[in-house]
Amino acid sequence: MKLIRLAIILILCLPVPSILARQQDNYDYFSANRTLIRNGVQAVLMCNGLFTSHRTIEQIFLQELAYLQNPVGTASGGEYLIDNKLKAVAVGGTESGPIIRAAFRRGIGCVVMAPDQDFENINLLPQLNLPYPDIDPSQTPWPNGDLVPAIALADGIDSDALQAASEWSFNRSSPEQVTLSLIVLHKGNIVLERYAEGIDVSTRTRTWSTAKSIAVTLMGILADANKMHLDAPLNLAWLPRVQSTDSDPRKAITLRHVLNMSSGLYPVDSAGKEYATGSGLSYWAGASSVQGALNRGLIRKPGTFWDYENYDTLLAVSVMKHALGDETIYRQFPRTALFDKLGMRSTLVSTDRFHDFILSSQVYSNARDLARFGLLYAQNGSWKGEQIISQKWIDFVTTPAPATAKTGNFYGGQWWLVPDSRTDVPKDAYSTAGNRGQYVIVVPSHDLVIVRRGLDYGNQGFNNWDLTREVLKAFD
What we know:
By secondary structure, this protein is of the alpha+beta class. It folds into two domains: 31-124, no CATH class; 205-472, DD-peptidase/beta-lactamase superfamily (Beta-lactamase, 3-Layer(aba) Sandwich). The chain has 14 helices and 15 strands. The strands form four sheets. The protein has a six-stranded antiparallel beta sheet with strand order 6-5-15-14-13-12, sandwiched between helices. Strands 1-2-3-4 form a four-stranded antiparallel beta sheet. Strands 7-9-8 form a three-stranded antiparallel beta sheet.
């Protein structure tokens, strides 16, 4: 009996990793969310593809939806509904899960609706009725317009090398790398412009996270006007609420921290849940883009750890909204402060259904508008004699975030920088970067702007610094 008791005691005292391993919980508790979001992704991309980009349903299934593993239906039909009169799309049903709807709204593109909303609620969604400046882009010279004169290449530009860079961009070895358009500006002039079949100068596609660089530009305008401050606390109403806001450690987070992607807040997107919870619910399922961003706890000291999170950008957008104060001014601000001045007539900033800008991703634009945007930076923030953003703000966005010092100094303030490991491109270059290959690259030392739009899928291996290297061969 004593031996049995001893044996039991020894068993209880043994380490249990092997037992726990056998009991490891591999169940995907977010599977229902993933289905909901999958349908929302398809609804938004189909809606914008049809009514913002003006593409065919065949093109949308071939390219826009190529990165979805299991899209609902095919171009021939399935559990989705397209209402051309309402300019709206619904995806889902008996076999494919909850129905998510998205509707095109004037001035902002498609807005995703809540799962319990139907097309009768479309009129509740935001829209922007703001007239455009009274000019004819086709008769207005570049860069404010689209009248581009034929000019000879300047001395020192190798036309063969430039064409080789174009071929390198479009003729990829991987079918998963799909270049839609390529523009190269030298000293403000378009020296290369090429579009894939089915794409032209007017085609708008989603910028994905290139939108973050647009967002930080809008914030720079306010910072230059002393209405936003890099080192001031965000001063937001954090969730969940605590009894005393003075005891909330999140009050230490500043605008600089979130723009440097080093807020210290609990990660969501970088933890493999981007298409299950977090910002995915606001992008694709009708949730508030603000409430989710506010509802994260602090797990690290702000400024000490780099962690790429859509919600960090959206927190900064909330600060921008508070700085503007007036709701109407906020809704018109991207147009009045930036787009209309640069001639970016094809760029739409979408919102969630609560009228808040999703400036971390949900922007639709064409290649020329993004070239104008890059040119603003190449011209040190100046446009037609007006200083839109200061050199001081450009210096901030192109200075490595302190939290990246040990990992290559690859990120600034919502712009990507040449990492320390790259020695084949100028160190002064900087770039936007969006999912599926959206790049605006500025190379000040060569007075260059490079815009590449893509619909990559799968591994998405197209590299912006490799593209920069290839283009620079024409200018060496």
